[in-house]
Design a protein that fits this description.
mainly alpha; 16 helices; 248 residues
């Protein structure tokens, strides 16, 4: 007779393996080139520890989380399907996402490719609930840009990182946000105001990781923002576009 498989304790916490030195080195490379997205994933892997596991368990306890976890839809293929996106209603979250990614020359697969850098082959795509949830969080990043109203300029990325920390409590996000906040210097009052506003918005809004994104993409953008409690980013919007890439 074969031995019975050991029971799975989903609430047993993973060890908090964190490497601040590795994260700081990646942060320096990111500040040198804000488009080096692979460094963001490096920071997350160095500092987030069991945050992904805790978020997945929170998903399971949310109203629709059990169904979402059971269906474990992979969002990247959907978001790469331009024909599917084109059929979404005008003014919807999905239409705005399609316009945003086209304008910024972005793609879900490009972001996925960045997330695989530095990992063993197949690690990011393995069949495991925590890995699926990590991919889901990765694939919704640019949807969060659209929902929050933050652009891909330096300040917009920092504001979205700050918002993301409040939503996920991942220490990798906290390091990037704190580093950027300190680098603005005392003269960067309006930038710091926008970052603080992003923190308040992240606390006040609905929990975005628990959303059904296939359904959300069909919603009218402004109606979705109201439902999720995403008020306009007034401090960010007050800064002219040409000033949202501070050299500091």
């Amino acid at each position: 007779m074969t031995a019975a498989a050991p029971p799975i304790n989903a609430r047993k916490r993973l060890p908090a393996r964190r490497d601040l030195g590795r994260a700081l080195a990646a942060l320096g490379r990111l500040f040198a080139n804000k488009d080096d997205t692979a460094q963001v994933f490096e920071i997350m892997r160095a500092l987030n520890g069991p945050a992904g596991q805790k978020l997945y368990l929170r998903l399971l306890s949310s109203p629709e989380g059990g169904r979402l976890a059971y269906e474990h839809v992979e969002l990247a293929p959907k978001l790469m399907d331009r024909d599917w996106l084109a059929r979404l209603p005008a003014g919807s979250v999905g239409a705005a996402y399609a316009a945003f990614t086209a304008r910024e020359n972005l793609s879900a697969e490009g972001l996925a490719a960045e997330s695989r850098k530095g990992l063993a082959e197949g690690e990011m795509d393995r069949a495991h609930p925590y890995a699926w949830f990590g991919r889901r969080m990765r694939d919704t990043h640019d949807i969060w840009h659209v929902l929050t109203g933050y652009g891909r300029d330096s300040l917009g990325e920092v504001c979205l990182v700050t918002f993301s920390f409040q939503q996920t409590r991942g220490l990798g996000w906290a390091l990037i946000a704190a580093g950027a906040y300190l680098r603005t210097g005392r003269a960067g009052g309006r930038y710091r105001a926008a970052i603080r506003e992003a923190a308040r918005r992240g606390k006040a809004s609905a929990w975005l990781p628990g959303e059904d994104y296939e359904r959300l993409l069909t919603e009218p953008l402004e109606a979705a923002r109201r439902r999720l409690g995403l008020t306009p980013p007034a401090a960010y919007d007050a800064i002219p576009l040409e000033d949202r890439n501070p050299t500091a």
